[in-house]
């Protein structure tokens, strides 16, 4: 039997091993991170201060902006630290903690996108009953339900990870602690861990996916029966949400489910950058550029602040 020594420290491969790229990458991702925090915070501030934006739709959008700030903060500061030190070492405890919060924010975000799909369904397909169905108590309960499920789900994986031993020196092929890759460097039996990932992906992930896209089947059917003017307005209210959904699901699915996943190519790392770093930056841009009410609110706030 091979003598194996338990390791308490892991190595992250990072985005690049070239020393000459560490400073440029640090500056680029620092700028991206600051823009992400600024853009999402501005959306939250506008929604809290502008009475025109204090509706269920923008309440969910503000919650999404808060999640984006948290999601980006789980991975980007650690990546910036590794660019600065160029060591890329992380303890097992820190790695598992990062995995917990990545799972929490990722599940919270996709669940909230499903809730926002339901909100759009009620607004377009049942407009006369919108205020009765989507009153504030319902909105708060939906968000609390999303957060509660997102708190409990990662705990299952964390409790199982704490029982594993890690004794390989193989680096994690990423710039953050990724659950599947962490299981690959464990010297314990990970069958239960992998089985739970598959079960949750099929039932929980499949359920959320269905709740996100199924309402749009009814929405599209309803929109096609509208007049041209009303159809254009209805499409505009859904386009921003659908764009965010496709970007998040597209990069996530490509990163984890494409055929060459085991090769850990540079393309995998680029996809990881998209759904962990760039998506939280793009979301506020999409909602501010494609949303007329949000653009009007931004202009109103700019005129209020401007001394001229």
Automatic annotation (TrEMBL):
Molecular functions per Gene Ontology: G protein-coupled receptor activity; olfactory receptor activity
Membrane topology, from the record: Multi-pass membrane protein
InterPro entries reported for this sequence: GPCR_Rhodpsn, GPCR_Rhodpsn_7TM, Olfact_rcpt, Olfactory_GPCR
Annotated keywords: Cell membrane, G-protein coupled receptor, Membrane, Olfaction, Receptor, Sensory transduction, Transducer, Transmembrane, Transmembrane helix
Subcellular locations according to the entry: Cell membrane
GO cellular component, one term: plasma membrane
Membrane spanning stretches: 25-46, 58-79, 99-118, 139-162, 191-219, 240-258, 270-289
Main location: membrane
Domain G-protein coupled receptors family 1 profile: 39-287
Alphabetical list of Pfam families matching this protein: 7tm_4 (PF13853)
Membership in a protein family: Belongs to the G-protein coupled receptor 1 family.
Protein name (Swiss-Prot/TrEMBL): Olfactory receptor
Organism: Hymenochirus boettgeri (Congo dwarf clawed frog)
Organism classification: Eukaryota, Metazoa, Chordata, Craniata, Vertebrata
